[in-house]
Amino acid sequence: MTNSIIDIGVNLMHRSFHEDRDQVVARAAENHVTPLIITGTSLRNSVDAARYAGTYSGKLYSTAGVHPHDAKNCNEETIAKLRELSAMPQVVAIGECGLDYNRDFSPRDVQRKWFGEQIRLALELDMPLFLHEREASADFIGMLKEHRVQNAVVHCFTGTRQELKAYLEMGYHIGITGWICDERRGKHLRELVRMIPLDRLMIETDAPFLTPRDLKEKPKDGRNEPAILPHILQAVAECIGKPADEVAQATTQTAKAFFRI
Known about the structure:
With about 260 residues, the chain is of the alpha/beta class. Helix content is about 40%, strand content about 15%. It contains 9 helices and 8 strands. The chain has helices spanning about 20-30, 45-55, 75-85, 110-125, 135-145, 160-170, 185-190, 230-240, 245-260; strands spanning about 5-10, 35-40, 60-65, 90-100, 130-135, 150-155, 175, 200-205. An 8-stranded parallel β-sheet has the order 1-2-3-4-5-6-7-8. It is globular. The model has no long low-confidence stretch (mean pLDDT about 95).
């Protein structure tokens, strides 16, 4: 593969990358995976992501937001600080934000409150939203419709046909991970991915999580990393019946346009 591809979701500030973060970025580039977009999942993590991305101008970008798991730690200053971060040129989206009723690490009313605040911030700044949803689609879709959100990517989509249809009708982009490489859990996704127009499709590793199950050589520590994205691209291309190069080019163009990079 000659085209470079963009990993739109890498948890690069995760502790599993502390020892070799620079090497991970280098390995990604060697495998034509560049630029990378680092996911911000809490205020502190978003600050770290923006700072690190700033040292790799044009090669790394980041998002700024608070994941629903961390919503319980939000206070009145959180949004002001996210607003400050968002002014940096390397910060390209608000999120990862949304609702997670699967783990309920933060109370649901608290999740909804701070999701709403981040939606308002993204609309105020005219920035795209980087979204997370798990077992909360009714409230999630309801809130996005209520705020008339148009510019968003549903990251790591693993939902139902009905949910996918709703997101596409709302004009959203869809992020597909190595979940599609899992012959047990990802089976339905292999069919659903055909419904996504190429100008709405983006690919991501969600590293260090979601290491593709069908890798011939498994990473020793089981850690996923952006250099593995071409494997996910290949799986997506096979599912939609298009050449990998065409999918690489399309998803990269889509990501560049969406994140304005």
